[in-house]
Amino acid sequence: MKHLLNLLAAVALLVWGTYLVRTGILRVFGANLRQVLARSISTRPAAALAGLGVTALVQSSTATALIVSSFVGQGLVGLATALAVMLGADVGTSLMTVVFSFDLSWLSPLFILVGVVLFITRQSSPPGRVGRVLIGLGLMLLALRLVAESTAIIVASPAVKAMLESLSSDILLEITVGAVLAVVAYSSLAVVLLTATLAASGAIPIDVALGLTLGANLGSGLLAVLATANAAVEVRQVPLGNLVFKAVGVVMAAPFVGLWVRHVSPYIAEHNQLVVLYHLVFNVLIALMFLAFTRRVAKWVEQWLPRPDKTLVAGRPHHLDPSALATPSLAISNAAREALHQADVVETMLLGMLRVIRENDLRLAQELRKMDDTVDQLYSAIKYYLTKISREALGEEESRRWTDIISFTINMEQIGDIIERVLIDIEDKKIRKGRSFSDAGMAEICELHARLVDNLRLGMSVFLNGSVRDAQRLLQEKARFGDLERAYAQTHLARLAENTPQSIETSSLHLDLISDLKRINSHICSIAYPILDPAGALGPGRFGAAPPGQSRLL
User: Fold this and answer.
1) 424-455 burial, b for 16+ CB within 10 Å, e for fewer?
2) pLDDT tens readout for residues 152-208
């Protein structure tokens, strides 16, 4: 019992070490890895090579799938190209399996020692995250040695020998067991390494080890599908297409396991090398055979999982993928995209508001007011999603971006509330009472509204690109808009003095309206503060007031 517990603990340590390496690499190089992929996938062969390189570094084809799926969702790459990346990603994982199959246990103490020192002394900095990676590597090497020692003792038991011998008679059972282990361990890399170690110690026959290896490949595809089950359709398409490749490959390779054992084993004496080499050859052949068929498989997947019509505004979050939370840079990017979706809904409300004022359209007013519920739902979803991102895993720039997104969504939510109140006032004080603004008053409202739309679009650009120059332009609009609002209030009072009937009837509504438009503009212009403050471009005076919404961060 003690030896079995030691084996299980060693396996758990192997899985945990793999997780530490994967998450550590993504936290150090997450944004850069996304840039490498984005720049290197112009053709399918180049995409496969990019997937190979990135996955060899992060040691997880699932993580690569999440990154490249975000590109598909943004329309940066096609699904066929993304599937080519995944073919390369599987080769990258198998390459790392070959590397870890060598006896590198002597490096384990060094990696753990250096990693712990870096992690403790510089925990929130890049060196500290590198230390996390070294700890993971050291634990993986240590775990592999412990697995070998534990299995050498357990395999001597007659009961264990009988159980392992039962697997050798059924390739389907071996594939099933390997797939289940890969899903449970959340890593095909860990399962293949474990299988190779068991084969090297004589715990399992070599043909059984190869069957388990095929199952681990299939399990990694299932794992990616399960991990993205609640994600957007674009995110789910990539793992599903990759699973098709793996399933077809396993079906084709399973009948020929015996040929590999008979013809290759005489040239490779060590069973662990025989297993990891089989794993590598399998993935290389799959990549070479199916690289030309990525377009066809992409069409099948798009038929099975059709994309929703994104021209329709909906309250359901499109980009808040829960499976991306383990990759902070990717999760931050998803939250920013969803914040822009929220701003699109606000822009729709703002554009529709002028139509309601001009055309007295009660039906449109009610539809726009319902959109405020959408804005509120998106704000809550984005805020909750951001709180689930580990702040310790964020670098200084990502942490600042986290705060920027929260501030931006707060301002959008408050703008939506103001527009809803304006629409209620228009319905009660203008449409239902049959009143109208004077021609001069309507022209003033249209001028303010046009400036608001321009400023909102500029604010969205500032939020997206972080341009200091555009942020300064946006903040200057705050003063200009305030001057214009005061001037139009004076001209309205002048029309009252001239006893203009329409101005007298709508006086209260007119003044409240231009005041509300000014408040909306203030929230829009406050988008500039988080950009200008770190750059030292936020001067004192009228531009230095605290932006609205900052006190409601959470």
Assistant:
1) eebbebbbeeeebbbebbbebbeebbebbeeb
2) 676 566 766 666 566 555 789 889 988 988 887 777 877 888 888 888 877 788 888
